[in-house]
Write a structure and sequence with these properties.
Layout lengths: L6 E4 L5 H12 L3 E6 L6 H9 L5 E4 L5 H14 L5 E4 L5 E2 L7 H29 L2 E6 L12 H21 L4 E8 L6 H4 L1 E2 L10 H15 L7 H12 L6 E4 L1 H12 L2 H12 L5
Parallel strand pairs: 1-2, 1-4, 2-3, 4-6, 5-8, 6-7, 7-9
Helix pairs in contact: 1-8, 3-4, 4-5
């Protein structure tokens, strides 16, 4: 029998949203399994939960390895008498104009942001379905419904994650399992520091480079407005506690405003608006 009422597995828990969510849920009394591709990256999380007087299970899990997932997940499910909530949070962004992205780089982007959540979902679903309860929370982004320049690979992976989640939600809701998307806006995480640049990014010449420089100028200005990811953690907590969660949860004012604006404005006007917000001046 479980000593905790609810067991939550969080991928990408070594920093950002995953770290904040793990800390918040541990403090709320959940049995939290925190994973990262490299165990040493989880040491600060383990130290912080210990300092607060709580315990947490930290596991190294290479989500892009079929063998690792097939070896680790069944053991975790058995040791914890099932996973009640899966938070697919791990991911990264491939940065660069679409014309600079190679097929191999795009495959790697999808391997982490789409295929890995699928593998983990498939690992926990059989027990969830047999118990007729469970929640799968896929951390998407406002960019899961809204494209922006130079993020085409990342944006497309989040569009794919959202489409897969929407189909899965319809498939498993009669079986007692909830599938939910969280769409954060701009939060203080390691996302930009961990972005991978397309290999051909530095081969660009004028006029594309001018626009790219203008974009960097705008992004550096916007990063100063990044918020504490605890807000996302609290939304995830709300979803776990809900008996009938919604499908999409935009988190932050700019995320909600962006998605609403896209729905309401004519397509050309919205494209113009995104362009003006992206480039602070006309290069």
């Amino acid at each position: 029998m479980k000593s905790f009422e609810t067991t939550v597995l969080i991928t990408g828990a070594s920093s950002g949203i995953g770290y904040a969510t793990a800390i918040h849920l541990v403090k709320e009394g959940f049995d939290v399994i925190a994973t990262s591709r490299v165990y040493s990256r989880l040491e600060p999380l383990k130290e912080e939960t210990g300092r607060l007087g709580f315990s947490i299970t930290c596991i190294e899990l290479e989500i892009n390895s079929d063998d690792a997932v097939e070896e680790v997940m069944p053991r975790l499910i058995d040791d914890h008498d099932g996973i009640d909530v899966l938070v697919n949070n791990a991911g990264y962004g491939l940065f660069g104009p679409v014309q600079t992205i190679s097929a191999n780089e795009l495959r790697t982007q999808y391997e982490t942001n789409v295929i890995a959540p699928l593998k983990l979902t498939n690992a926990v679903l059989p027990r969830m379905i047999s118990q007729r309860k469970g929640t799968i929370i896929n951390v998407s982004s406002v960019l899961g419904q809204l494209g922006t320049p130079y993020n085409g690979a990342y944006v497309s992976s989040k569009f794919a994650l959202e489409g897969m989640s929407e189909s899965l939600r319809i498939e498993v809701w009669p079986l007692g399992v909830h599938v939910v998307l969280v769409q954060p806006g701009l939060y203080a995480t390691q996302f930009q520091q961990n972005q991978v640049h397309a290999e051909k990014l530095n081969t660009l010449g004028s006029p594309i480079q001018q626009y790219l420089d203008a974009y960097h100028q705008r992004r550096e200005h916007g990063s100063s407005f990044a918020k504490d990811p605890i807000a996302v953690a609290k939304v995830i907590h709300k979803i776990i506690r809900s008996k009938r969660p919604s499908f999409r949860y935009p988190v932050s004012l700019e995320a909600r405003a962006g998605l609403l604006t896209k729905r309401l404005l004519p397509e050309r006007l919205f494209q113009y608006l995104v362009s003006r917000l992206t480039f602070p001046r006309n290069p």
